[in-house]
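Hi C.,

You asked whether I'd gotten around to modeling the 262-residue construct. I have! Everything is below, sequence then structure, no commentary in between.
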Amino acid sequence: MPSVRTAGSTVHYEVTGSGPGLVMVHGTGGDGRANFGHLVDRFADARTVITPDYSGSGETTDGGGPLTLDQLVDQVVAATDAVTDEPVDLLGFSLGAVVAAATAAKHPERVRRLVLLAGWLRHDDPRHQLNFDLWRRLGNGEPSLFHRFLTLTGFSPAYLSRLGHQGLAELLANFTTAPGVLRQVDLDLRADIRDRAHLVTAPTLVVGNRQDQMVPVEQTRALHEAIPGSRYAELDSGHLVLFERPDELVALVRDFLLDDAD
């Protein structure tokens, strides 16, 4: 896996495919491969897909301490610059959506189009604070309980029920989180882009999930409303739409990224 140094960090990333760049930014507790590994080939025919791991995930390392949005923005840009100097499409999921929006606001010249999946605008919603504080408490305690809670709230009820007892047991058995997940959860509690969402100038698609219990769809709608001229779509999914509705999601994102009308 290639890597690049930036501001005290060594950022690891993967590259697949050919064509204009598409950078995929993972969410809390995951990494590029865990979140997007099953989707990369579905874009690699038309895009050079870049999947960086930001601090706390994969083999990316830094000096430790609390994470900041700007730190993760710099890591995403460094991985992008290591592969191409052309503007790229940028897709972020959950915390990665917040990072991607902050990247587009800070570096508008580097972003051709922007896709934000299940992201949020502000950190001070009481339910948001309750949710991620519970993540932190569970993560500091029994890992199996943490994984069970994330599974329970990450997928829609119908999706989990359709798995059956054996399927659900297999899902839980294979559930892992990044070693630096608690550093990322701490950033979830602080990440707020009300001061910069209006600076996003790239054509933007915001995608909310109607059954999202981690980042309720109202928060994603508020993100859409804060980005001038953004488009909005909703899927009938829980938060982990990457796994629950991959076909619908890929079709939606490809239509947006490959539409040259703008």
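If it helps when you're writing up: The chain has one domain: 3-257.

Thanks,
B.
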